[in-house]
Structure of Leucine rich repeat and Ig domain containing 4:
Amino acid sequence: MEASPGTKWRPLLLLLLAVIPGTFLTGSRHTCPSRCRCLSQDKVVFCNGRNLTAVPGRIPPDSELLDLSQNVLRTLQQGMFSRLQALKELDLSYNALSNIEPGAFNSLKRLMTLRLTGNKLKMVPSGVFTGLPSLAVLDISENEIVLFQDHSFKDLSSLRKLEAGDNHLIFVSSQAFSGLQSLRQLTLEKCNLTGVPTEALSHLRHLVELRLKVLSIGSVPDHSFQKLHRLKVLEIHRWPSLTALRPHSLAGLNLTALSITRCSLREVPYKAIHHLVHLRFLDLSHNPISVLRGRKLAELSRLQEFHLTGGRLATVQAHAFHGLVHFRVLNLSGNGLRTLEEGAFHSVGNLEVLRLDGNPLACDCRLLWIIRRQRRLNFEARQPVCATNSTGEGKVFRKFSDILPGHITCRKPTIEKETPPQRLSVEEGGRAMLTCKGDGDPPPTISWVSPHNVSLDASRKGRLAVLPNGTLRIHHAFPQDGGAYLCVARNAAGNDTMWAHLRVFSNFSVRVNASALNASSAALPFLLDVGTLAGILAIGIVPFLCSVAICFVFISLWNKGRGTAKHHIINAVPRYSRGYKAVTNRHKRVANKPR
Ligand SMILES: *[C@@H]1O[C@H](CO)[C@@H](O)[C@H](O)[C@H]1NC(C)=O
Ligand SMILES: *[C@@H]1O[C@H](CO)[C@@H](O)[C@H](O)[C@H]1NC(C)=O
Ligand SMILES: *[C@@H]1O[C@H](CO)[C@@H](O)[C@H](O)[C@H]1NC(C)=O
Ligand SMILES: *[C@@H]1O[C@H](CO)[C@@H](O)[C@H](O)[C@H]1NC(C)=O
Ligand SMILES: *[C@@H]1O[C@H](CO)[C@@H](O)[C@H](O)[C@H]1NC(C)=O
Ligand SMILES: *[C@@H]1O[C@H](CO)[C@@H](O)[C@H](O)[C@H]1NC(C)=O
Ligand SMILES: *[C@@H]1O[C@H](CO)[C@@H](O)[C@H](O)[C@H]1NC(C)=O
Ligand SMILES: *[C@@H]1O[C@H](CO)[C@@H](O)[C@H](O)[C@H]1NC(C)=O
Ligand SMILES: *[C@@H]1O[C@H](CO)[C@@H](O)[C@H](O)[C@H]1NC(C)=O
Ligand SMILES: *[C@@H]1O[C@H](CO)[C@@H](O)[C@H](O)[C@H]1NC(C)=O
Ligand SMILES: *[C@@H]1O[C@H](CO)[C@@H](O)[C@H](O)[C@H]1NC(C)=O
């Protein structure tokens, strides 16, 4: 009996419970604003592109997505969405919003995505984004925002992604990003910023991806990103005035991906990146970098991908990728490379993707390793093409797939070197032959570089000629031909060099040196002759005089009979003096000769 009131009301209650949702649903179906399209089952309302100047009334309050993009809304008043508490995504992009009152988004407790891109916002007053505890994505790009004031985003504690590109930003206040404790991704693009907002960024302790694009910033000061310990991805794109990175500009970072593209870097910023030992992806495309240097990336042992497309790369030095044991992707399309040698890699075993298209490749033995591996390498359907052969002559547009490995062989030249190095002396007017034998596959061509830095090769005929066997022949040598000659043996695989020295004695010095030699060798026997004569004279003077005396006696005795002995004695003495005179004259001549 006491329970009767409950039982009496129960049917009515059940009826109400059954009817209310029905009326609500039919009601919502009926209350869809006239210029909108409502998908009530998906709780989606499309009012985009309707020339709306105000937010329409009668939007179903259970809507989760409201698209008001491409209208002409100018302002948003405080609390104007407060009925729509179920809203998860609100799209207000491409309107004419220039003013948003603080509290406009109040009570949108479930809102996760707010798009305000393409409006006319000039500032983000503190308080505009209050009451959005769930907001994860905010897009305010393509507005006219000039500065981010302190605490502009302070209540967005769940915000993970902030798109702020394409504004007129000239200044980011030091506390602008405070409170964005969950922010993972930030993009600043096409702004008039002239420096990296280091202080503001330092509040983003959980930032993982930072994109700074189309900026006229010319330098990145040391420690610009010092406190972004969690940052993994940094993209710097289109900073035309950035020509170099300072050695400590990226200090404090522990990145896995770094892109510095379409800037004006002339060198790989080896010093700035060497500490990024967890880096896996590096993109330096569209920078005027001309050389990848040997062993400079060795510390980045986890690097898997390197991209430098559309640059001015002409040389990849040996060991350029030394130490990169996990290297998988190399993208060098659209550069000026004539070759890429296997010696540039730590090992080509892991290489999967190789893009070399758009380079004037010379197909010779240096590229043999690619031709051999072409089935295992992914060219992304862009086969490298031979533009020239090893001599650089002619245009031979041949696909790698048309080249058989057997056609190409390779061994770097080596020159048989003499120890000590070749030294040759010739007289002026004489002929010199400097030899140089190079070995290699294909056989190297030999050329010589003269002491006067003239390159001499087999094509040259004349006084100085390189013979087919590599010998440099110098006809009719001049003293000025003397000096150090460099022999260079070169083939497609490389070169080897050797020095040889030539000395050409001028006729003058030949005369002086030779005559000095002749003089000494002539003077020596002469001195011996004089000494001997003197000795003979000294020792033999008594027997001589005796024999003369005996002769005299003998002759006078004989003369007593004939009377002609005097004549003979006179004849004998001059014969001796004549001989002595001849010797002294010769001595005089030799002594006078040097001048
Ligand atoms: C919006 O207005 C423009 C002119 O102001 C008109 O050309 C266009 O058709 C209108 N669009 C809609 C959907 O009414
Ligand atoms: C930003 O730079 C662009 C082009 O350089 C210029 O048109 C614009 O007026 C600048 N904006 C500000 C706020 O300085
Ligand atoms: C750097 O990042 C890697 C993962 O990307 C992580 O394993 C490593 O611990 C980090 N090092 C430091 C010092 O934070
Ligand atoms: C290599 O670079 C080209 C041109 O920039 C690009 O289209 C291609 O996707 C790149 N390949 C890889 C694997 O990133
Ligand atoms: C390179 O090509 C030119 C022109 O096609 C040809 O004359 C020359 O012999 C070739 N050189 C080699 C080494 O194949
Ligand atoms: C030698 O000549 C070459 C050009 O043939 C030039 O590039 C080089 O600088 C010269 N070297 C010296 C030491 O003069
Ligand atoms: C090189 O060739 C020249 C002439 O053909 C010859 O006189 C010379 O002995 C050769 N030199 C060597 C090292 O073979
Ligand atoms: C020899 O080759 C090296 C590179 O391997 C190069 O730097 C050098 O200039 C070459 N020398 C000559 C004379 O060609
Ligand atoms: C130097 O002497 C050589 C003979 O030794 C001779 O053939 C040559 O003509 C001389 N040269 C000059 C410049 O006098
Ligand atoms: C003459 O010969 C000597 C060594 O015998 C040498 O040192 C000197 O330079 C030569 N003179 C000239 C002018 O070459
Ligand atoms: C030096 O002597 C040799 C023979 O001993 C001779 O052939 C040569 O012409 C001489 N040289 C000079 C400069 O007198």
Observations:
- Residues 488, 490, 494-495 surround 2-acetamido-2-deoxy-beta-D-glucopyranose (ligand 8) (CB under 6 Å).
- Residues 1-6, 13-29, 519-533, 563-595 have pLDDT under 50 and may be disordered.
- Residues 138 and 238 are 24 Å apart (CA to CA).
